[in-house]
Amino acid sequence: MKTTITSLLALVFLTKGLLAQPKKQGFLYQDAGKPIEERISDLLGRMTLEEKVMQLNQYTLGRNDNANNMADPVNDIPAEIGSLIYFSSNPDLRNRVQHKAMEKSRLGIPILFGYDVIHGFRTIYPISLAQACSWNPELVRQATAVAAQESRMSGVDWTFSPMIDVARDGRWGRVAEGYGEDPYTNAVFAVASVKGYQGDNLASPTNVAACLKHYVGYGASEGGRDYVYTEISNQTLWDTYMLPYEEGVKAGAATLMSSFNDISGTPSSANEYLLRDILKKRWQHDGFVVSDWGAIVQLTAQGVAKDRKEATLKSFNAGVEMDMMNQCYDRHLADLVKEGKVKADLLDDAVKRVLRVKFRLGLFERPFTPVSTEKERFLLPKSLKIATRLAEESIVLLKNERKTLPLSAALKKIAVIGPMSNSKWNLLGSWRAQGNADDATTVYEGLKRELEGKTQVVQAPGCDFDGNDQSGFAEAVNMAAGADAIVVCLGEKSQWSGENASRSTIALPQLQEELLFALKKTGKPLILVLSSGRPLELNRLEPLCDAIVTMWQPGTPGGSPIAAVISGKVNPSGKLAMTFPYATGQIPIYYNHRQSARPHQGKYQDIQAKPLYDFGYGLSYTTFEYGDLKASARKVKSDGTLTLEVAVKNTGDADGLETVHWYLSDPVSSISRPLKALKYFQKQLVKKGETRIFSFQVNVKKDFGFVDGKGEKFIEAGDYEVMVKDKKIKIEVTP
Ligand code: BGC
């Protein structure tokens, strides 16, 4: 169906004589020496209405590899198209299509090639939720820079990443794609990844344009179901969902993607307040907004537009500049301009925004991608090193009774059991771009390599990821009974998280739980290794395990980083960026909730009130002792500054990385505030026996202040509490 539409459009343009117009030569917009804004105005002045409209459309080039977005491949790409989703890793393909745009279109405007490079292009690094658990934004900056280099050298100019949707419901599959439940954490990693993707100069042949998504509130999807309604008060919108976007825009993100969700009656993709008043006017964003796939036409499903034309009108006027696979703008925008329903200057503003990003990317000067070999681009040793370090630092040790881990070198034999024990594919997670499972090592392979010559490693799956077939249990249990310790690898398949991958429960399938129950009967030490795209419900498994560790979905490094942790070569340092509920029924449960009217009551009768593992929780092979918090002053002015410090001593017998989280509480405020909110974090290596000072330079207004339902920041005089672990001090803020 779509093939026909786009071919027809191409024909319309041809018959309008676009291709027969004056040859492009020596125009100001082609002069790289002129300022970009002058070049944009010159080019805009030469464009016809149809050419302008085509700049605002994005089609797919070839097959779409996102299983949730169905469309026929577009076989006949119009030379005037603004952007294409590009699913290939072959620069030749891009160059062929780009030649058509440069040579066959009247003005030779290069096409912008976009792609979902979510956690790596070919070198896949851990999913974003895991990255957040590393608390190492610099490492994330480096990893996103690797993704940018591999992408740009393969013909991709623009990634639809980072996803910075604060998410508090593990049933929602897309929690894997964001940085967890905390607004500040999402903001920090938004900035880190924008810097990694874009570098200092978008025109560099190894940088790509970033896209903050999904603007905004998509993480509030009711019941964790995807694409559904979101009920978000203005207060919650501002104090929970907006910060990562505001910071990402400040960091220079070239583009944003409007989300699918309906925010309290006004879908994001038709939300003039959010797109125009806030993003473009208040935050002065001068790049463009692309709709999510089909989010414009879906305004009809959401009940705010009667047809595609009205959806076009609403979305465009609200401030969505580019139509991703809706067939709305290409069909209706020109008519709406002619009818006066869309103002010509708004159309010009939209086109300017798209052109601005293209000029900044240097596409007019270098529309083609230099051809290089895969070896020159992919899986470079330094890229793999970054991915591996990030995977190591993302691993969170959740339980370690009697120092079960690291494994004693004296063990003669270990059994690696479970459906995840020898799986490659499922370690990559969803959105693996051009990732190749064959590049990854399984946990079994990783352990064999790591323990070679010391401990014998045997393996059996025991069962599949789900279903009822327990016929493999006996072999696995026998094998485990003959070993000195069991590493049980359980978890989720890649496609169980990501888009359109909601689950009614965050527990593992019963089959996997039963495998662990059966293994427990051997009486051998049980080490549970988890791989998943969301926090899991572990209350039935936790009491049975001697150690529990999650590696999330580590990407190309696969099982090697967890093997290094199990062997003790790497001391785990990850801490949770999302709460592990005790049971699914506790959802939503997150650390920065507001206080109940009766904190001592209102609990569920049948389960504990606390989650199983809190936000910020994670063990190490060493121990850290925190000194008292010190402040440069106990009384500060609301526009003042302050230095806070804490000394952390490594009291154990291994070097270790420690992350200090600084929380703030404002017990009495005119608008109730989270019980505690993360304001700053820092990670440092603290060697055995050493003490290091962690400090937080406070900007009182910014760090102690709050935001109201209009997005206005304010600070009130009074007493505040700063918290680090179980240490607390009071700071008085004066007017
Ligand atoms: C997803 C986006 C993605 C887009 C393009 C949509 O379905 O929600 O996150 O960037 O598809 O693949």
For the largest beta-sheet, the strand count, sense and barrel status come to:
6 strands, mixed
Task: Name the CATH class of the domain at 383-586.
Answer: Alpha Beta
Compute the CA-based radius of gyration. Answer: 27 Å
Low-confidence stretches: 1-23
Helical content class: 25-40%
Number of helices: 21
Strand content: 15-25%
CATH superfamily of the domain at 383-586: Glycoside hydrolase family 3 C-terminal domain
CATH architecture of the domain at 383-586, by name, is: 3-Layer(aba) Sandwich
**Shape by Cα distribution:** globular
Structural class given helices, strands, pairing?
alpha/beta
Q: State the separation between the terminal residues, measured CA to CA.
A: 64 Å
How many strands in all?
Answer: 27
Q: What order do the strands of the largest sheet run in, or round the barrel if closed?
A: 11-16-15-14-12-13
CATH topology heading of the domain at 383-586: Rossmann fold
What is the residue-mean pLDDT, rounded to a whole number?
95
List of distinct ligands in this structure: beta-D-glucopyranose
Draw up the topology in text:
Elements: H1 2-15, H2 36-46, H3 49-55, E1 57-61, E2 83-86, H4 91-104, E3 112-115, H5 128-134, H6 137-152, E4 158-159, H7 183-198, E5 211-215, H8 234-241, H9 243-250, E6 255-258, E7 262-263, E8 266-267, H10 272-282, E9 288-291, H11 298-301, H12 308-318, E10 323-324, H13 329-338, H14 344-360, H15 374-377, H16 381-394, E11 396-400, E12 413-417, H17 443-451, E13 456-460, H18 473-481, E14 485-491, H19 510-520, E15 526-531, E16 547-550, H20 560-567, E17 624-626, E18 630-631, E19 635-637, E20 641-650, E21 656-665, E22 677-686, E23 691-699, H21 700-704, E24 706-707, E25 713-714, E26 718-724, E27 727-734
Parallel strand pairs: 1-2, 1-10, 2-3, 3-4, 5-6, 6-9, 12-13, 12-14, 14-15, 15-16, 19-27
Antiparallel strand pairs: 7-8, 11-16, 17-20, 18-20, 20-23, 21-22, 21-26, 24-25, 26-27
Beta-D-glucopyranose binds at residues 66, 68-69, 116, 160, 213, 292-293, 499.
